[in-house]
Amino acid sequence: MFVGIRGLRMIMWTILLVLAILHRASSHGIQPLSRIAIHKATLALDNLAYVKASPTVLGLNGQNTEWVTVEYSSPNPSMDDWIGVFSPANFSASTCPAENPRVYPPLLCSAPIKFQYANYTSPDYKVNGKGSLKLQLINQRSDFSFALFSNGFLNPKLVAVSNTVSFANPNAPVYPCLAQGKQWDEMTVTWTSGYGIDEAEPFVQWGPKGGHQQHSPAVTLTFDRSSVCGAPARTIGWRDPGFIHTSFLKELWLNRVYTYKLGHRLFSTYVWSQEYQFRASPFPGQNSLQRVVIFGDMGKDEADGSNEYNNFQRGSLNATKQLIKDLKNIDIVFHIGDICYANGYISQWDQFTAQIEPIASAVPYMLASGNHERDWPGTGSFYENNDSGGECGVLAETMFFVPAENRAKYWYSTDYGMFRFCIADSEHDWREGTEQYKFIEHCLASVDRQKQPWLVFLAHRVLGYSSDLSYAVEGSFGEPMAKENLQKLWQKYKVDIAIYGHAHNYERTCPIYENQCTDNEKRYYKGTLKGTIHVAGGAGASLSPFTTLKTKWSLFRDYDYGFIKLTAFDHSNLLFEYKKSSDGKVYDSFRISRDYRDILACTVDSCPLTTLAS
């Protein structure tokens, strides 16, 4: 049959679109735990098989992370045998909620918190049936057990279960995360514990380093299974989140170093965390060295190699290690969506907060909402998909503080010295005329550029420009409708840089307006601000390809993991750097030098029409 050129083009575009959609699904990842059909597990206990875990008590010296040795044996070993880590340790059918539609075995009603193949570090397991693993556990408010399964992931058979392992105090306060409050001189501290307010009073003991210490009470939140929206979050992915506490440390002296400890008062005794410290934020407009790190889509990874047989978030630990290594040169962090890719497996949020604790306990760790936190059909998300695994925003909104008026609407502004950050929620409607559009305009319009010259727009999805293949085949080179609705605001209010996640690669554009480069310079921008520079990138989750189409506005592309660092030296000089997660070295950079008069100067569509009256 003869097919014309136009028909061939249509066929090719259709193929590209399908491939892009499939790759977008894979690059945005399948939660490793979802590969296990735990609802199909059956009982096949063998008296000749065993699993032993040691030590049995962890954290005797206050540690919240410990390594456990798991030894196991099976009389009928196979290559698809695997070890699952369960918490709580009792995962029998008696723990199944009534609403769970289990009318025949399985005996299991909750997914493991991590898993690994039985032959991972024991190559002779298939021959002799004996193996061992070194697994890292974190304090997650309950005990642990280890189970040996045969028959792979799709129809697993439970062969043996270990003794229980627990932390000395599973309820201990853990994993503090700092965030800026609603005022510049306020810092919030959020952490997790196993203590409800009827059992113990949560607070933070804090004060200037070496000075008087005071106590500030904390508010306490939690949620139950009915709070989340669907499976797996409501079913096999459910795990009790414990209690989430937030304390507000107010009237801080700028740039002063403070120490703090998390505390819980149980009648006449106290439970304490270790001591941490942070530096108070500069006041809006303060002229000092200010260093900001921004990235999206980092996810979490396991130091022991478990969970990650599909290499979904293999850049995550590298990014975390680089940030910890350079922490003395970082003042504030923005993680702009797709936080840990728990996708409804709630245990993974604890794993993530433990991973970032060295960073988030020392500098403000600010979030934006992404599709893997918020999106779920019929819940008001702008995109009707299943990406959150039934979480529908509840986990991110509860476990992390942001200075939003309503955390269910995850948009907010925050000032850091010479910076104004306007953080959009790409998972809620941002089109002209909406509540969020009005917020974005107010955030951009209300900043005093004489005091805060550096205006940065942040969002998870690419509301600007991207050459990611999935966007290119749609012909939109960014989220459809986004530029048409928002670019006049970026231009009118002279946004310096717009930064996004979602596209799992790195790309930087020229200063751009209405698809046209407004400045031919590539490395050093000075004078009048002519257009906004758009940047997209991801720090750890699996990479996605670029289109082969060439666009004039795309200046730099890198198919790799990385993060952005902005350094404001003063009111006139800003350095932008893109660093790779693998080695922390700079692979792309540019400088901006401009004075206040350059910001005031008019350019295309940035000033109202003037009058001829004199």
TrEMBL record:
Pfam families: fn3_PAP, Metallophos, Metallophos_C, Pur_ac_phosph_N
Domain of life: Eukaryota
Matching InterPro entries: Calcineurin-like_PHP (IPR004843), Fn3_PAP (IPR040974), Metallo-depent_PP-like (IPR029052), MPP_PAP (IPR041792), PAPs_C (IPR025733), PAPs_N (IPR015914), Purple_acid_Pase-like_N (IPR008963)
Chief place of localization: secreted
Cofactor: Zn(2+); Fe cation
GO cellular component, as recorded: extracellular region
Signal peptide (UniProt feature, chain positions): 1-27
Subunit and interaction comment: Homodimer.
Name listed for the protein in its UniProt record: Purple acid phosphatase
Species of provenance: Gossypium tomentosum (Hawaiian cotton)
Lineage per the UniProt record: Eukaryota, Viridiplantae, Streptophyta, Embryophyta, Tracheophyta
